């Protein structure tokens, strides 16, 4: 299975989570590419069987929590029509509605959501294997 992991990172935590997701997918015998959302090309998306797309969480603890700058970079992504996509984020205190908000933006680009996971900023690899395994099993069930 071809896996594309896309991330939007500022301090490196989301990139570390993306790398952990990529390694977990490699451990499942997938062909993996990990790229910043700035680097992604149409052919990268076309060749992917499943995408993992993630960002960091921006905002205050009680209000304004959202996927960082996603309103800017999600529309710039190649079309996701018919693509299975799992979302992830990194957060310091509480991701609140960040994952559903990111999922809604990606769905509007044609993505079919197949999973989501929030990584605590200080532990960007924690549960990456479980998350990836769950998403890949979901995709295989639908494809099989």
Largest sheet: 6 strands, mixed
Number of domains: 1
| Overall outline | globular
Distance between the termini: 13 Å
Fraction of helical residues: 25-40%
| Count of discrete alpha- or pi-helical segments spanning 4 or more residues | 5
Examine the secondary-structure arrangement and name the CATH architecture: 3-Layer(aba) Sandwich
Strand fraction band?
25-35%
Radius of gyration: 14 Å
The average pLDDT value, as a whole number, equals: 91
CATH homologous superfamily label: Flavodoxin domain
Give the ordered list of helices and strands: EHEHEEHEHEH
The CATH topology assignment is Rossmann fold
Q: Please mark out the parts with pLDDT under 50 across 5 or more consecutive residues, or reply none.
A: none
| Class by alpha and beta content | alpha/beta
Characteristic key phrases:
alpha/beta, Rossmann fold, 6-stranded mixed beta sheet, 28% strand
Overview of this protein structure:
With 144 residues, the protein is α/β, with parallel strands linked by helices. It has a single domain (2-139), classed as Flavodoxin domain (Rossmann fold). Helix content is 36%, strand content 28%. It has 5 helices and 6 strands, in the order βαβαββαβαβα. The protein has helices spanning 13-27, 42-47, 70-73, 98-108, 128-143, and strands at 2-8, 31-36, 50-58, 66-67, 84-91, 112-120. Strands 1, 2, 3, 4, 5 and 6 form a 6-stranded mixed beta sheet that branches. The mean pLDDT is 91.
């Amino acid at each position: 299975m071809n896996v594309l992991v896309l991330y939007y990172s500022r301090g490196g935590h989301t990139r570390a989570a993306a790398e952990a997701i990529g390694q977990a997918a490699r451990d499942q015998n997938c062909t993996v590419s990990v790229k910043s959302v700035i680097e992604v090309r149409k052919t990268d998306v076309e060749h992917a069987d499943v995408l993992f797309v993630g960002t960091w969480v921006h905002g205050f603890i009680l209000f304004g929590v959202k996927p960082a700058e996603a309103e800017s970079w999600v529309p710039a992504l190649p079309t996701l029509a018919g693509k299975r996509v799992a979302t992830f984020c990194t957060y310091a205190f509480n991701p609140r509605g960040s994952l559903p908000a990111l999922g809604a933006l990606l769905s509007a680009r044609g993505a079919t959501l197949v999973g989501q996971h929030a990584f605590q900023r200080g532990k960007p690899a924690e549960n990456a294997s479980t998350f990836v395994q769950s998403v890949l099993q979901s995709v295989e069930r639908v494809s099989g």
